[in-house]
Design brief:
The protein is an all-alpha fold. The chain has one domain (2-287). It contains 13 helices and no strands. It has helices at residues 2-15, 18-24, 29-50, 59-85, 88-95, 98-110, 116-135, 140-163, 169-194, 204-229, 234-240, 244-256, 264-287. Helix 4 (59-85) runs antiparallel to helix 8 and helix 6 (98-110) packs antiparallel against helix 7. The model has no long low-confidence stretch (mean pLDDT 84).
């Protein structure tokens, strides 16, 4: 269990860099995710080929994993869209509502009883986001997109937990990221028509940051998170990812001086969210 928690928080730390990198990369959100998945998928296929970890699975299983990969791709597109329409800090705070959606979606999907304690902690996070939404209306569009991203983000760890009972983390990661890339490629022409980009190809600096985003914040973080899911519930994984805003916001303050753009309501809302995270961590450690 201790190893799983270390893997999980290493993945969260790496994920904390994704928001900052999303602002550094000047591509629009759809192309950013498309290039991220392209580089990540190629890297995994080459890496697993030489390590002989490519495993064939049935078409039925492959279809399910590809579907979840598409959900993950949409989650990333909306996450970076939230950054573009608001800023890194607001997008990361909205991401915290993933715990609330998990508390609802996981019991509905697996037909289990809703855990009232988890639901209340999730509602506490929603309350923190509402405080920011209520008093900082200039971020309204970014907040709405960020909440949609959190809903999508709550789904693929839930499904992954069942996949990991039958397949190795490497297999799920490989087919999921590849499925996300293929699915996003299919809809990309329609997406670019609706949201025309300034340019299609990354600049030299964009390419460097895309490599960092793909290799460290995607491939490595994804596998660490998958391994942790074998021992830890999807809700705990998702709520632990609420620490991602802490790392990401501190980086955004240091690099972009976003603390000068945010009012008192942001910090009040963030404090409420952190209270929910702390309470859940205490609850998990007491139970285990």
């Amino acid at each position: 269990m201790r190893k799983a928690f270390l893997q999980l928080h290493a993945a969260v730390l790496l994920a904390g860099f994704t928001g900052v990198l999303g602002r550094l990369i000047t591509l629009n959100e759809g192309l950013l995710v498309w290039y991220r998945l392209l580089i990540s998928s190629i890297t995994l296929w080459v890496l697993f080929f030489f390590r002989k970890k490519i495993v064939r699975i049935s078409f039925a299983e492959l279809s399910k994993i590809v579907g979840v990969g598409f959900i993950a791709a949409l989650h990333w597109v909306t996450f970076y869209g939230s950054i573009k329409y608001a800023n890194v800090s607001v997008a990361l705070v909205c991401f915290s509502s993933i715990g609330f959606f998990t508390a609802i979606c996981e019991p509905l999907i697996f037909r289990k009883r809703i855990n009232i304690r988890e639901l209340l902690l999730g509602l506490l996070v929603i309350g923190g986001i509402y405080i920011i939404f209520r008093f900082d209306p200039q971020y309204k569009v970014g907040i709405i997109i960020g909440i949609v991203s959190a809903l999508l983000g709550s789904l693929f760890p839930i499904f992954n937990r069942s996949f990991l009972q039958r397949h190795a983390p490497e297999t799920v990661t490989l087919y999921e990221l590849t499925g996300g890339f293929v699915s996003l490629s299919v809809i990309m022409p329609f997406y670019l028509r609706l949201f025309p980009p300034i340019y299609l190809f990354p600049t030299s600096s964009d390419f460097v940051w895309l490599l960092v985003l793909s290799w460290f914040c995607t491939v490595l973080a994804f596998q660490l998170s998958m391994s942790a899911l074998r021992k830890i519930s999807a809700f705990t994984v998702n709520l632990s990812y609420n620490l991602e805003p802490v790392y990401g916001i501190l980086l955004a303050f240091a690099i972009y001086n976003e603390n000068q753009q945010l009012g008192r309501s942001f910090y009040i809302g963030l404090s409420v969210i952190m209270l929910a995270v702390i309470l859940q961590m205490i609850n998990v450690y007491r139970e285990k």
